[in-house]
Structure formats: structure tokens, C-alpha cells
Amino acid sequence: MKKLYLILALLITVPVMMEGQVAKYKAVFTLNFIRYIGWPDDARQGDFVIGVLKDSDIARRVDSQIGGKKFGFQDVVVKEFNSVDEVTDCQVLYVSSSINFSRYADQIKQKLGGSSLIVTEKDGATQHGAMINFVVRNEVLKFEIHKGNASSQGLQISSRLENMSSAIVL
User: Fold this and answer.
1) pLDDT tens digits along 87-98
2) Are 108 and 118 in contact (CB under 8 A)?
3) Closest by alpha carbon to 55, among 114, 101, 12, 1?
4) Residue of 148, 35, 160 lying closest to 91 (CA atoms)
5) Tens of pLDDT along 110-138?
């Protein structure tokens, strides 16, 4: 009977641990994206704000990795938004899969203004304006890059980001 409980416990904890690893990688990738984007002058003013919409785990992970770091001369600040209505202008907005991005894309883009990188984790999000979208292909975490959406916001995506093994350029 103890073996059965042990097996059940392992079956429950392994997916949770794997999900935690995926969140960790998404947070690390999101922070690294910043370095591979050519930002316009208006994005280099004030604090460099990374917003996270409806994902406390990602927000916490990004915040813990930032640790008071700077991006150039800007202080990096992480803001957590619990709803689309709370979103304010930021340089990067991470939108969790719990938000129907296709439904709220226009509203989100209006709240952000220009020069904002939108990172999502929902299939088809790049068709609605996301610049980078996390996907799982063959059980491997990858990210789609939509250069057209980025350039429409004045953002330039480095070829070094495009050439990463996890990148899928659209």
C-alpha cells in the first residue's frame, strides 16, 4: 500500500515540477529577450518596466532574477497586473495563457501605447499582434518571433535572437 501512495505522489509531483521548470525557463527567456531588442528612444526613458498579466509565478520569478539590476541606465521594475483593465504602459508585457489574447489584443495594445514588446503563451497570438509567443513543439519549449509585429511598434529584433535554437521565425 505504501508503494501505491509513493507512486501516486510521484505522478502528482512530477507534472508540477515540470510545470515549474517551464515557468522558470519562460521567465529567463523573457529577461533575455530584452537584450536582443533594438529599443526606440522613448522606451529608454524612466524605469524599464516589465509587466506580467495574470501570472503570479512568472512575475515572482522575473522579479527574483532581476534583483535590482539595470538595463542600461534604467532601473528594471516588475509590475503584476491581475486583469486587462489594470495594464499600464510598460516596455515588456508578458501575457499568460489564462488571458484570451485574441479577444483582448486591441484593448491591451491601446493601454500599452507604442514601443512595447508583447510576449504571450497562446497558440495563434502572433496573428493578433504578439511579437514573441511561447509554444511547445515536440515536448520542447520554443518561442515564435513575429518581426512584422515588432517593427510596427518600432522594435528591432536582433538576428542573434532569431538564430537561437528555440526560435521559430514567422
Assistant:
1) 999 999 999 999
2) yes
3) 101
4) 35
5) 999 789 999 999 999 999 999 999 998 88
Amino acid at 6: L
Handedness of CA 100, 25, 58, 169 (dihedral sign): negative
Cell 509513493 found at: 6
Helix (H, G, I), strand (E, B) or coil at 38: strand
Q: What Rg do the C-alpha atoms of the chain give, in angstroms?
A: 17
Question: Which residue type does 51 have?
Answer: G
- Angle, CA 138 vertex, CA 134 and CA 144 arms, to 5°: 25
- Please tell me the distance from the alpha carbon of residue 45 to that of residue 58, in angstroms, as a whole number: 25
Q: Can you state the angle between helices 56-66 and 2-33, rounded to 10 degrees?
A: 60
> What's the pTM?
0.86
